[in-house]
């Protein structure tokens, strides 16, 4: 439903065809991270992972960008593990200091 609402805008503004967008989403679901190459800046790639609140809704993400020649398949796997670890650390820190992580951010315990 959300994809249908934004896919035309993504195609119009960023030149990403519907089939490419859907394929990228499928890849991200399968791998647990998303990769873009040469979409924002020529010669630059990025890897990113989202994280969810206690209800399973994505509400934030971390990403790393580098020149495409430096973001090799081996480096992508390494960075995916680093991002996953950082996300776990952030999730634990939010729980420890703020209470429940919700889809609107962080709810104070009480």
- The ordered string of helix (H) and strand (E) elements is HHEEEHEE
> Per the principal axes of the C-alpha atoms, what is the gross shape?
globular
What strand order characterises the main sheet?
1-2-3
Please, what is the average pLDDT? 85
Low-confidence segments, given as residue ranges, are none
Strand content: 25-35%
Helix content: 40-55%
What is the rounded Rg? Answer: 16 Å
The CA-CA distance between the termini, in Å, is 34 Å
SS-based class: alpha+beta
Overall strand count: 5
Sheet with the most strands, sense and barrel status: 3 strands, antiparallel
Contiguous helical run count: 3
Description of the structure:
The chain is an alpha+beta fold. It is 48% helix and 26% strand. The chain is built from three helices and five strands, in the order ααβββαββ. The chain has a three-stranded antiparallel β-sheet. A hairpin with a 2-residue loop joins β4 and β5. The chain is globular, with a radius of gyration of 16 Å. The termini are far apart. The mean pLDDT is 85.
Helix and strand topology:
Layout: H1 2-14, H2 18-31, E1 34-37, E2 44-52, E3 58-67, H3 73-98, E4 100-102, E5 105-107
Antiparallel strand pairs: 1-2, 2-3, 4-5
């Amino acid at each position: 439903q959300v994809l249908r609402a934004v896919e035309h805008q993504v195609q119009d503004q960023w030149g990403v065809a519907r089939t490419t967008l859907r394929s990228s989403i499928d890849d991200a679901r399968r791998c647990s991270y998303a990769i873009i190459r040469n979409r924002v800046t020529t010669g630059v790639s990025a890897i990113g992972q989202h994280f969810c609140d206690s209800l399973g809704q994505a509400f934030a993400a971390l990403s790393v960008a580098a020149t495409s020649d430096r973001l090799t398949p081996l480096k992508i796997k390494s960075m995916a593990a680093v991002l996953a670890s950082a996300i776990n650390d952030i999730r634990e820190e939010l729980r420890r200091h703020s209470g429940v992580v919700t889809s609107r951010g962080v709810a104070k315990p009480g």
